[in-house]
Amino acid sequence: MRQEFRSLMKSVNRVEFVFEAIQKSLGEKGKLGWLFYVLDDGQAHSQKQLSKDWMIPRSTLNAIVKKAEEEGFVELRSVPKTRRELEILLTEKGKAAADELLQPYIELEDQALAETAEKYSHHFVEVFDYFSKNLEQKIIQGIMEQERDF
User: Fold this and answer.
1) Can you name the residues that pair with 90 across neighbouring β-strands?
2) 94, 68 in Cβ contact below 8 A?
3) Is 81 within 8 Å of 104 (Cβ atoms)?
4) Which residues does the UniProt record annotate as the domain HTH marR-type (predicted)?
5) Which of 8, 33, 66, 119 has a Cα at 20 to 30 A from 127?
């Protein structure tokens, strides 16, 4: 099992490397491109949720969001029943910029996913999602148990 896990982690790192390469290829628009990518699902997201889902520090995310808001790419709205939480939405200008900036990469991403799903089925995404959540739960539980023992 250890070798399988190591192989899996190499694959995860390869995917992360690809996203970092895309970000670098976008130059100064790299961080903005990342924000476009995570917001481009048409949903409103809170900074708290984006930080958790995408594992990015809230301070880093806040800086990117502020810049995007100043440039008119995103709109911030108060989340009902919270004191300070804001949800982030792409504006029409932001949607257009996201399409222009990300389209070449999304097409390649779609091709890779389609080829993989053709060979292994779309279930591999569901399986990997289950595995990642299960691993997170086990590790967090393990950390908490170790901390109690000290």
Assistant:
1) 74
2) yes
3) no
4) 1-133
5) 33
User: Cβ distance 142 to 76 under 8 Å?
Assistant: no
First-to-final CA distance of the chain: 29
pLDDT score at 150: 62
Mean pLDDT, the chain cut into blocks of 10 residues (150 residues total):
92 92 88 92 88 89 94 91 86 95 93 94 92 91 78
Task: Please give the Cα distance from 45 to 54 (Å, whole number).
Answer: 12
CB-based contact 47:80 (threshold 8 Å): no
Q: In whole angstroms, what is the distance from residue 5 CA to residue 52 CA?
A: 23
Which domain covers residue 127, as residue numbers? 2-149
pLDDT at res. 43: 87
What DSSP line would sit under 28-73, residue for residue? GGHHHHHHHHHHTTS--EEHHHHHHHHT--HHHHHHHHHHHHHTTS
CATH number, residue 73? 1.10.10.10
Does residue 35 contact residue 23 with C-beta atoms inside 8 Å? no
CB 91 within 8 A of CB 70: no
